[in-house]
Amino acid sequence: MIDVDNLGLRQGAFQLHGISMHVPRGKYAILMGKTGCGKTTILEAIAGLRRFTTGKIVLNGRDVTHATPAERNLGYVPQDGALFTTMTVRENLAFALTIRSRPTKQIDERVAQLADWLRVTHLLDRRAVGLSGGETQRIALGRALANHPPVLLMDEPLSSLDEETRERMIELLKELPRQAEVTVLHITHSQAEADRLGDIVFRLHEGRIITEPLAA
Amino acid sequence: MTWVLVRKLLRDIRVAWLIAAVLLFLFQLLWSRITSRVTQEILPAMQALGMQLPLLQAILMGRDALGQLVQSIIGGESIALDRPADMLSIAYVHPLVLTILCIWALGRAANAIAGEIDRGTLELLLAQPIRRTQVILAHLSVDAIVFPFLAAVMWTGTYFGTSWMGLQELEMGRIDPTRFLPALLSVLGLLFSVSGVTMVMSALGRSRARVWGGAMSLFLGMFLTNVLGQMWPDQLGWLRPFTIFYHYQPQLIIKTADWYAHGNIWFHLGVLYGVGAAGYALAWLGFCERDLPAPL
């Protein structure tokens, strides 16, 4: 569950006022808005990467307003995947588990499971450079989900993909809440993505949420 | 956990690390060869032609503009061109070596925080159970591993160079490579200070290229200030102590047998390490307090 209550921040001339969102557990939420309207800023605030002046953030019933990003226990998929290019695909997928010193057997099992679901098993031992956009985003998704986070934040994960790859990714993302038992907040400016994926759609305009959740 | 991060960071830099190490090693070998040629072939040949060493030394390192420029680049006025150990010590202050050392330290530190923000990977790191303090600590650990390695590679180049060129058995002034070992303290200090200052910029910046440009301008400015301060000591000499290159004094350590008993050497070392430590402390404070915006 993601609860954002009356979030506000100011950065120079840019301001966000009274942003409130509620995403029930296991739902797929879309946050829409034009480029530069503050979607990523909200995502960064939820992730704990950006401070805000007012408001409260609750994730899965726990107030994380003042928690560090790590304490929020969420998965994050940036816009262009941002894989660790000096690592192999396997090491990218395993990163969240390796950094938590999980047993090797557990890491191997989880990586195999993710690779199978994301259809990247054949890439596991390849270095994470020169991959296609779709492969990069699938691996970024797997890396974000490796540690079973209850909340997943995605910043325009499909924006750099061609139409065919985007279609395949949308099919994959549709399975997300069921496969990974995760609550998703997905940023996009594409109405088509919102229509295909969203259980709930939020619209952001000039620093304000101007449309309440459309459907539950 | 920090060790996992250190391993990742070491892996990120391994190619550049290897290139810097090879370049430093090869330059020391090359300079040993140059030392051998100058002291054993060129100077004797010039003397045979009637050009006496004091005259040559006066032309190259005298008090005129050329001499001051040469001095400012290759070392102090106490350097004697016919003494192999003096000639060899130039390899520790040569502009090419300074460039390799500074670019290495600067590039790594610029990449450390601003580079991760640029690539969009810092959010991913911080979404893991990694505190910001640990990120800074991991970078400090990388410096603590890599800098001594690079310094050791430099000295190894000196050792093999002097050995292969026969400079360790000269009658005219045998070179003992162990005399060069304490100078590595100064090399480490320079690396640490450049890294520390750049780390502050990196911790507060969001673009690797901008941090690179800013740090490069700063250190180039310091280098030129130090050179110009040597050329016009009356007018600009007072500026030199404000540059880290003024405090980088490996030749002084090499040429002073009881270097450890000299307070001024410790002062110079203290400034270099102090600047590095202050840089890291400020980087830590700045990084822990800042927002992490998405990549540009």
Q: Could you spell the SSE succession of chain B in H and E letters?
A: HHHHHHHHHHHHHH
Strand content of chain A: 25-35%
Report how far the terminal alpha carbons of chain A are from each other.
Answer: 13 Å
Strand arrangement, major sheet of chain A? 6-7-8-3-9-10
The radius of gyration over CA of chain B amounts to 21 Å
Per DSSP, the total helix count of chain B is 14
Output the CATH class name of chain A: Alpha Beta
Question: Helix content range of the residues of chain B, please?
Answer: over 70%
Total of helices of chain A: 8
- DSSP, total strands of chain A: 10
Q: What is the CATH superfamily classification of chain A?
A: P-loop containing nucleotide triphosphate hydrolases
Unreliable runs of chain B, pLDDT <50, ≥5 residues? none
Biggest contact:
A-B, 29 and 23 residues
Outline of chain B: elongated
| Multimeric organization | heterodimer
Mean pLDDT across all amino acids of chain A: 87
The helix content of chain A, as a percent range, equals 25-40%
What does this entry look like structurally?
- By secondary structure, chain A is of the alpha/beta class.
- Chain A has one domain (2-211): Rossmann fold.
- Chain A has eight helices and ten strands.
- Chain A has helices at 39-47, 69-72, 89-98, 104-118, 133-145, 163-174, 176-180, 191-197, and strands at 2-11, 14-23, 28-33, 54-59, 62-63, 74-77, 151-155, 183-188, 200-205, 208-211.
- In chain A, the strands form two sheets. Chain A has a six-stranded mixed beta sheet with strand order 6-7-8-3-9-10, sandwiched between helices.
- The model of chain A has no long low-confidence stretch (mean pLDDT 87).
- By secondary structure, chain B is mainly α.
- Chain B has one domain (2-36, 92-289).
- In chain B, 74% of the residues lie in helices and 0% in strands.
- Chain B has 14 helices and no strands.
- Chain B has helices spanning 2-12, 14-48, 53-61, 65-74, 84-89, 95-119, 122-126, 132-164, 184-204, 208-231, 233-236, 244-247, 250-255, 263-289.
- In chain B, α3 crosses α4.
- The longest helix of chain B has 35 residues, at 14-48.
